[in-house]
Amino acid sequence: MSAAPDPAEIFARGAEEGRRRLGQSLVELVSTSFIAGFTIVFGIAALGVTRGFLDPVGEGVATVAGSLAFGVGLVFLIVSRVELFNENFFDPIAAAVERQGSWLVWPLVRLWSLTFAFNLVGGALFALVFAVEGVLPPEALPVLVSIGEHSAGRGLTAAFANAIVGGALVALLSYLLAASDSVWDRIALSYMIGVVLALAPFEHVVVTTLHVFLGMLLGAEVGLRALAETVAVVTAGNAVGGLGLVTLSHVAQVSGEEGESTD
Fold it and tell me: Domains of the chain, with CATH numbers?
């Protein structure tokens, strides 16, 4: 078994991946973001179907089983190397830190804004497909409605704090992926983070927005204002957790190591 790479090597790997992500053409970035949006809906649907079938057994069993089912959706995303908002925080920031003379502000804004927009476009279009009567088993429908109403009705303070945790989890996944050496490592890491993300659930703006939107399509009592507030608050929390807690902490860690090595 090979030794785990040290933080400086993980950071260098992340920077290399970040340069690839920042250098995508417009068509590539839009298409990979769109694909990620509809791919994660598979995980949402799997969660709803599993919980719906197992709710008669018990709420706890159904919740755990649904989380285990949702993890597969994150595996699909990571193995296919598509672009998911928040999961692309660490690598591009690492590339920006390594770049001399520029913080790559425009490439970062371009990456994050297009990823965010087309994650939602792809996911919303696929949610419309899943909302067609007969696509999902009837047992899944009340579960998905309930999840949507819960996410939109959590309360702004609770949603913000919860989204900090969700953002930190997904950004941590990026860091761990940079430390992995095989596709099996990537599968295991993405599956574990996906399960933990769904278990609470911890809020990730794309997943949460699509949960709420699909719930609305199926009859959830959520208004457009509540949806917009949820998107804004969860995005802010994800940024604090993903950028502030995880990504910038690892930047400081590597900068501290480099400073010690030059003394």
Answer: 7-250 (1.20.1080.10)
